[in-house]
Amino acid sequence: MNLTQPVLSARDLRRAYLVAGAPVEAVRGLSLDVHPGEWVAVVGPSGCGKSTLLNLLGAIDRPTSGQLLIRGRDVAVMDDAEATRFRLTGIGFVFQRFYLMPTLSAAENVELPMAEAKRPRAEREARAKELLTYVGLGARTDHRPFQLSGGEQQRVAVARALANRPALLLADEPTGELDARTGEEMIALFDRLNRDGTTIVTVTHDEELAQAARRVIHMRDGVIVDDQVRRPLESVARPA
Amino acid sequence: MIARLALASLTRRRGRTALTIAGVAVATAMLLDMVMLGSGMRESFRGFIEQQGFQLRLTPRGTMPFDSEATVGGAQALVARIAEDPEVVAVAPVLGAKLFTPRADSVVPAFLLGIDPAVQGDYVLAEGRDIAAPDEMVVNGAWLEATGVRLGDTIRVASGYDAQLRRFSGEGSVRVVGRGRFMMLAGGEKVAALPIATVQGMGGEDLRDRLSVVLVATRAGADVETVGRRIEASDARVSALSTEAALRFVDERLSYFRQLAFILASVSLITGFLLVTTLVTVSVNERIGEIAVMRAIGVARERIVVQVMLEGLVLSVIGAVLGLGLGIVTAKWLNEILSAFPGLPAAFDFFLFEPSAAVRSLGLIISCGIGAGLWPAWRATTLSIAQTLREEAVA
């Protein structure tokens, strides 16, 4: 793994929306590099542009201007099909509200991105089992989301995000719907993922989650106002 | 996996899905019945008119078969002259008259057909045997029921009856030998058939050597219209009506039925379309967050379209198959009701099942089902992922 080349590189990134006919800039000229093995927590008050930034980094929204390179590819110029394919294989998403498919089992939820990537069934099943075991749900593979607790559902969502071995894991308030104890378990899982080599960017209001990250970026009014590395990168192990 | 998700989304709200399928089934049944009605009457008429095996019907000029009591004299000579035509292979004279059957305390009136048993085209024997002697008679079920006579009985009948004087005329003794299905006459009407010479004899001077209709069979490949015109030219007292002309005449009379069938079929189709569209749209709206997440994790737009349209397809296929059975049952039921309409030929069917009609109906409903998924599919795939997730989070 080349630690000198950033996984993600944003330059003068801007995103403006029309609100009641008037343009409002949610992200205003933001520049950022994220290197392999980093765990970046983006914090800041509501409306500061954190989620917009995460959507841009995940190629589910397009910047109004600026450049965004992920693994050397310019996300801003991708068409819908390219961006979809890129998200499938290059990005892992974890959402605040888990968003598992309620009609699929835990294993099938994890298999979904792999099925979309046309991985063979045997490979999908083995990988799903491996990932669910990794997140501590090896015995719950056949359970449907409604049979799992919130924390367990979020673990399945993490396993799903890792299914296609993405270069970048993006998490939007991953502890937002969890109680304190389950939230701590989730933080521990993210920490383990990162120690095992997964590059993570989380957007959060959770102070404990932010404290656990290696680097914390503070945003206000669409720009980065503080960028602190709390724990430098050590040796990076094999990604999960 | 996508097919699995499509089916799972339908089973998630089973009651709602079942109601929609029931609605599609009713719409399909209605559509099938209207398609059957649209072409059924014409084909049914063609079926039994061709079953008789005669291509021309000669009637007293200006009349339709049996729509009046008009007759033509010189029957024997007329039949002989028509038979001489090189294009004619069979001639069947028919004389319409009345038949009165005295019972213990009543008289049963009936319609009497004088026919040539060797070449008749008026009935199909259902029970017993055909006429083999001048005093043998074939009747229909309604006549047997009304008189209480059984096959094999010999009874007294008359061709005339004065109700005030309670006096019969043109009496004779006949033996009932068979029960037939009289195709051109109404189902509930009491009918009997005797050899034409016997009927002419019973009728006295009024019916002597007369006939009401002549059925003519032409040789294969003959120009029926030309033969008809030739016969009309040789005898100004008769009009010739070919099978095709009769069908055209019926077509004109049935055009209102066909228009009605077309309108009702269109309404059924639109109803089915709207039902499926509504259900799939509601289903998509409920899962809009899930769909946004699927798009976010990299599920292609086309796959979402396939999933949504598959839901419409499954609904319409199940509904259409159920509707096919329902349509056949209701068509049979409606046919029984409509066929009992007074004055309609017994062999006339309003709803005629044809496999092509069923295939057409199924095809239309299933196409509608696929089309019905288009709008919700388009909506599902054009949503802004980021905005939808934000709205879902707020909700």
Q: What does this entry show, briefly?
A:
The complex is a heterodimer of chains A (240) and B (395). With 240 residues, chain A is of the alpha/beta class.
Question: What does it look like?
Answer:
The complex is a heterodimer of chains A (240) and B (395). Chain A is 33% helix and 27% strand. Chain A is α/β, with parallel strands linked by helices and 240 residues long. Chain A has a domain of 158 residues: P-loop containing nucleotide triphosphate hydrolases (Rossmann fold, 3-Layer(aba) Sandwich). A six-stranded mixed beta sheet of chain A has the order 6-7-8-3-9-10, with helices on both faces. In chain A, strand 9 and strand 10 form a beta hairpin. Chain A starts with 7 loop residues before the first strand and ends in an 11-residue tail after the last strand. With 395 residues, chain B is of the alpha+beta class. Chain B folds into two domains: 194 residues, no CATH class; 166 residues, no CATH class. In chain B, strands 1, 2, 3, 4, 5, 6, 7, 8, 9 and 10 form a ten-stranded mixed beta sheet that branches. In chain B, a hairpin with a 4-residue loop joins strand 2 and strand 3. Classes of the chains: A alpha/beta (240), B alpha+beta (395). The interface between A and B is medium-sized, with 34 and 26 residues.
